[in-house]
Write a structure and sequence with these properties.
By secondary structure, the protein is α+β, with helices and mostly antiparallel strands. The protein folds into four domains: 4-81 and 279-420, Alpha-Beta Barrel (Anaerobic Ribonucleotide-triphosphate Reductase Large Chain); 85-252, no CATH class; 433-568, no CATH class; 582-703, no CATH class. The strands form eight sheets. Strands 1, 2, 3, 6, 7, 10, 13, 16, 19 and 20 form a ten-stranded mixed sheet that branches. Helix 2 (27-39) packs antiparallel against helix 3 (49-61) and helix 5 packs parallel to helix 6 (138-153).
Length: 704
């Protein structure tokens, strides 16, 4: 049974539409389209195509299993690109960098996400022999990739996403760590520092380590490891980035070391991949695997085997955006079967998330999925042949055959968990009531946990007043006397659970996962930098392959929020204008004549701005009036004056002017400078003109 929120997501993103944008299929038809397309691979191996189609349709339409979004969107269409995650190499050459940008655009256009390591690019300021110039460094090129993603995502149903990784021993590592300090930068990237074992040991021992220039593999200097680690922690505390991946640990589990070294992951970090490799993911809904308060292992086994069959078929029917990706993906045939609805499963079993019993259940469930998934892959390997790179892999000699180099991955399952109507991945409940921002934040879905509602009604303590009270309590039932103690325990939310329990749960799942485990460690808003540091170290010590943290409220936009009232009323109305305001008028010389900028204040500071050219009229004055009105609207609505200055400053026009206070590039630039000087309390500079740039150049040529 699809929920209202599930139908909203399906209609917006997944169901096929005609040229007019009209939906032309139902959810049932979508599942049938996907099942039929994926089952067609069985014909190649002499299998029963019709039976496979029915198996696949049943596990999807029952919401027991769902594949990653590109498979649901594209299977059986002309696009037919079914993988969610790709990793592309970035070479240290202009040709190589822009070849990767082109390839990225092709992948994003078809709905995939991309991961990159920028570690091969020579550092900023390094020599470029071919031109005699100096290198701009990896961060500058990340901005080019980011801009490309902005363009591509406008035409798709799925936003382009990137993972940017830099080795901790790259000379530009400090700039990389702070690259997203401004939340308006690199908006299409998640970033993670690739930490080596050497670095982590240096942090623990308070030692220095070497930075290596990738151009020649020579050490350029030594820096304090703890200082670097602390800066990572500080930035993660500030806004959740960068994360950390433990690269040596990831390569230790690389199933095909003879093929290549892993240097990056997909955008959410759960899928380490070789350069030019892709992977398709899918997740089993654990909330459906409980019967009479216990795990229904027979049903789980059946769904695991059918899911492995499904995902292996995807490798064959997939349309790859590049020949190199096709070659590498078919060589390893990696799949990533994971789980979702784990928190719901625990609730159905009456087990608190933050308990030893829950950790044991995580190991029990995931070890079963891993073991059965591997058995299914071995059986497929016997029937269809092992993956081509099997000989020399870590499975060679351990198993008679193996169809897939990897079988399991724990993905975040954002959209598909909404479709399935279950909790995301292995995350705890975010809140009993919350607002979910989806689809480029144009849609806001109100979600109330159905299990809590059901229990509250059955036990007679459900009231509308209680639901409001929970919302006001940040979506938590903790400490509410109306809610029985045993119910409070099993309905712990992400912010009720200590960060240590988050990491322990991630580590428990990682023990039985081939690839990596996507998990966000949630912190309360008042958490300290040291709290984050402890969790980063704990993740390393417990064997996690990476760690991502998020301190509530540390970003301007967040996917989930409990503060419904605050978010819902976030549209501000400008303050009314008082009868009397005080202000000043500054005269600024511009290439278009003298500009008079009037800045008025009320008791809270800057309130309104007017700008007018001394001799102008017509369009120029109309445009200045519009600028003034919009600035005033922003100021009266609570926008900081510094933010307005940043937007207007350095706008250029054909008639710049060199004045004593510095160059005036345009009238908007002049308004920005007047505002900036007013904010800083500076006295107006001498306003006499020098010459505009053209006249100045002409004067210089005459005296030459």
């Amino acid at each position: 049974m699809l929920t209202e929120n599930a139908l909203t997501v399906l209609k917006k993103r997944y169901l096929l539409k005609n040229e007019k944008g009209e939906i032309i299929e139902t959810p049932e038809q979508m599942f049938r389209r996907v099942a039929k397309n994926i089952a067609s691979a069985d014909e190649k191996y002499g299998g029963d195509v019709k039976k496979a189609e029915e198996d696949f349709y049943k596990i999807m339409s029952n919401l027991d299993f769902l594949p990653n979004s590109p498979t649901l969107m594209n299977a059986g269409t002309s696009i037919q690109q079914l993988s969610a995650c790709f990793v592309l190499p970035i070479e240290d050459s202009m040709e190589g960098i822009f070849e990767s940008i082109k390839n990225t655009a092709l992948i994003h256009q078809s709905g995939g996400g991309t991961g990159f390591s920028f570690s091969r690019i020579r550092p900023k300021g390094d020599i470029v022999h071919s031109t005699g110039g100096v290198a701009s460094g990896p961060i500058s090129f990340m901005k080019v990739f980011n801009a490309s993603t902005d363009v591509i995502k406008q035409g798709g149903r799925r936003r382009g996403a990137n993972m940017g990784i830099l080795r901790v021993d790259h000379p530009d590592i400090m700039g990389f760590i702070t690259a997203k300090a401004d939340q308006k930068e690199l908006t299409n990237f998640n970033i993670s520092v690739a930490a080596s074992e050497e670095f982590m040991q240096a942090v623990k021992n308070k030692e220095k380590y070497s930075l290596i220039n990738p151009r020649n593999n020579e050490a350029v200097k030594e820096i304090d490891a703890e200082m670097v680690f602390n800066k990572v922690v500080e930035m993660a505390w500030k806004n959740g980035e960068p994360g950390i991946i433990f690269l040596d640990r990831i390569n230790k589990d690389n199933p095909t070391p003879h093929v290549g070294e892993i240097e990056s992951t997909n955008p959410c970090g759960e899928q380490p991949l070789l350069p030019y490799e892709s992977c398709n993911l899918g997740s089993i809904n654990l909330s459906h695997m409980v019967k009479d308060g216990k795990i229904d292992f027979d049903r789980l086994r059946d769904v695991v085997w059918k899911s492995v069959h499904f995902l292996d078929n995807v490798v064959d029917v997939n349309k790859y955006p590049l020949d190199k990706i096709r070659e590498m993906t078919l060589g390893n045939r990696k799949i990533g079967l994971g789980v979702m609805g784990f928190a719901d499963m625990l609730i159905n079993m009456g087990i608190p998330y933050d308990s030893e019993e829950a950790l044991d259940m995580a190991r029990k469930v995931m070890s079963f999925v891993q073991e059965e998934g591997r058995k299914a892959s071995v059986e497929l390997g016997k029937q269809r042949g092992s993956f081509p790179n099997f000989k020399g892999s870590i499975w060679d000699g351990k198993y008679e055959a193996m169809r897939n180099a990897t079988v399991t991955t724990i993905a975040p399952t954002g959209s598909i968990s909404i479709i399935a109507g279950c909790s995301s991945g292995i995350e705890p409940l975010f809140a009993i009531t919350f607002i979910r921002n989806i689809l480029d934040k144009n849609d806001r879905l109100v979600e109330v946990n159905p299990y809590f509602e059901k229990i509250a009604k059955e036990r007679g303590f459900y009231t509308d007043e209680l639901m409001k009270k929970i919302a006001e309590n940040n979506g938590s039932v903790k400490g509410l006397e109306e809610v029985p103690e045993d119910v409070q325990k099993i309905f712990s939310t992400a912010l009720d659970i200590t960060p240590e329990w988050h990491i322990r749960m991630q580590a428990a799942f990682q023990e039985y996962t081939d690839n990596a485990t996507s998990k966000t460690v949630n912190f309360r808003e008042e958490a300290t930098v040291d709290d984050v540091r402890k969790v980063y170290m704990l993740a390393y010590e417990l064997g996690c392959k990476g760690v991502t943290v998020y301190r509530y409220g540390s970003r301007e936009d967040q996917v989930l929020t409990t503060k419904a009232e605050k978010k819902a009323t976030g549209i501000k109305k400008p303050k009314p204008r008082p009868v009397v305001v005080k202000g000043v008028t500054r005269k600024v010389s511009t290439g278009c004549g003298n500009l008079y900028v009037t800045m008025n204040e009320d008791e809270d500071g800057l309130f309104e701005v007017f700008a007018r050219l001394g001799k102008a009229g017509g369009c120029a004055d109309a445009q200045l009036e519009a600028i003034g009105r919009l600035i005033s609207l922003c100021l009266r609505s609570g926008v900081e004056a510094e933010a307005i200055v940043k937007q207007l400053k350095a706008i250029r026009c054909p008639s710049p002017l060199l004045a004593r206070g510095g160059p005036i590039l345009s009238c908007p630039d002049a308004v920005a400078k007047a505002l900036e000087e007013h904010i800083k309390g500076k006295k107006p500079p001498e306003t006499s003109k020098l010459d505009n740039f053209a006249a100045l150049k002409e004067k210089k040529s005459e005296t030459a």
